[in-house]
Amino acid sequence: MAIDSLFILNTSGKPVIEKHWCEEASVRKDTTLTLPAFLRYLEGFDTIKEAEPIWYYPPSSTVCVHIQRNDLVYLCTMSSDVGPLQVLDFLDHLVENATEYIGNVTEVTLKENFIIIYELLSEMMDSGSPITTDISLLKNLVPPPNFVNRVIENVTGIGLDSDASPQVNVSSIPWRSSGIKYTRNEFYVDMVETIDAILESNGRIVSCNVSGSIICDCRLSGMPDLRMSFNQPSLLDNLSFHPCIRIPRWESEKSLSFVPPDRKFKLATYSIDSGVIQNGIPLHMSGRASFESNTCNLQLTVMANQQMVLKSSGAASTGALGGNLGSLGGPRKKALEDVKIELPLPTTAYNIRIQTKKGAYSVDQSKSDQTKLTWQLKTLGLNDNSVDLYVQFSLKDSTSSTIKSDASSRPALSAFAQFKLTGVSASSVKINSLKMIRETYNINKGVKTITQAGTFQMRF
After folding, report:
1. Which residues are in the MHD domain (predicted)?
2. What residues contact 426, with CB distance under 8 A and at least 6 apart?
3. I need a labelling partner for 126 at 20 to 30 A (CA). Which of 185, 209, 258, 335 fits?
C-alpha cells in the first residue's frame, strides 16, 4: 500500500497541509492536474456529504479517497493498486490523533500547530504506507506540546523542543508503558452508534446502516487485565479491534479480553445489519414539494421516535467489579438533542420565505454556488408532536421555464438531519459488565451510550 500525496483542504479548496511520498513528477501531477479535477468533482454536488468518498480520475490514472470532518476535507491520492478502505481508516486515525494533540482540528489550529502535524505524519507513515496509528505509541514518539511551548511558538514562530525526550517503552506490551500510576483509578466507555439513512418523502426508509465505535478512557495503574461482555454480541458485525484485543477469546466466548492502552483509545468498531435494528431510527422525517410557475413550496415535518426517547430515560446498565457499571453524562433528557436540519436550495432561488412554530432558522447565501437553509431545533422530545417547517421561494426565469417544459428537470431537493440521543443505542446492544483481573484496587467505571446521525437524508 502506498499513498502518493495527502492534502488537507479548507472550504475554498486550498491546501492547508500537504505531504508527498512520491517522485517529483507525481507531485506535479497531483498538484496541477488531479487536485483541480477533484475540486471540480466536488462542485458537482450540493454538499460534500453527497460525494462518493472514492473517485477515479482517468486522465492521471489516480484514485482519490477523501473524508470530510468539520470544514476540512482530507484527501489522499494513489496511482498504484491500494485498498481504499485502508486509506479511509488511515484518514480517520489521522483526524483522531490530530485531535488528541491539538484539540479541535480547524484551519486555524492546523496552521498554529503545523510542526506537530508534520511530525505525526512522519511517524505514522513510511514511504506512503501507514505504520503507526495507535495514539499510545505515537505519544512515546512525538511528545504532546505543553501550554508554555505553544504560546512561545505562536508568538515567535519558532518551534521549541519538548521538555521531555521521547520515552522508551520497556514494557512487553507495546501499546502500554510500564510503571503507570494514578491516585484515582477510572475506566470510562463511550458506546457511539452512527446512523446513515436515506428516507423517501413519505418517511419510508430506503436504506439504513448503523456503525458503532467503542471508545475508552483508561486511567488505571499498573497492568490491568479487563474483560468486557455484551448483552447481544451476535449482532456485532464487521468488527475491527484495537491490537490489544485477544482475538481467540472473542471467537470462543464473544467477550473482549485486553490489557488497555493508557488514556483515550478506540477499542473496537462494528456495524449492525439493518434487518436486526430493533429500536428503529430516532428521527422521523417526511416532506412535500410542489412547483407552480416559478414558485416552489416545501413542507418538512419532523418528529422524535417516542419509543426510543422513552428508552433513553431508562435505568443504567449494571455490571460487575464492585457495583454498577454506571451511566455517564448526568441526568438523561427525554429528548433528541442538538437537532439541526440543513436544506440546500437551488442556486437560482430568491425571495425565500420561511415559517415555523419551533426553533430558529437562517439562510446562508454567502457562497455564489450554494444557498443553504439551516433549521435548528436544539431539542425534540416527548412533549413535542410533529413540527413543521414551511418554505416558499421563487426561481429565476431560466429555471422556471425549464421546469414548465420538463417536470423531470426540477431541482433535486434533500434535507439533511443532525441529532444526538443519549442513553440508548439504535441496535439495542449494551455493555453488560466490565471486570478486572490481575490488579486488586477498586476502580470508578461507567458507560455512556450515544446514538447520532451520520449522513441522514430525506429526499423530497
Report:
1. 184-459
2. 193, 195, 210, 272, 277, 279, 280, 281, 282, 308, 451
3. 258
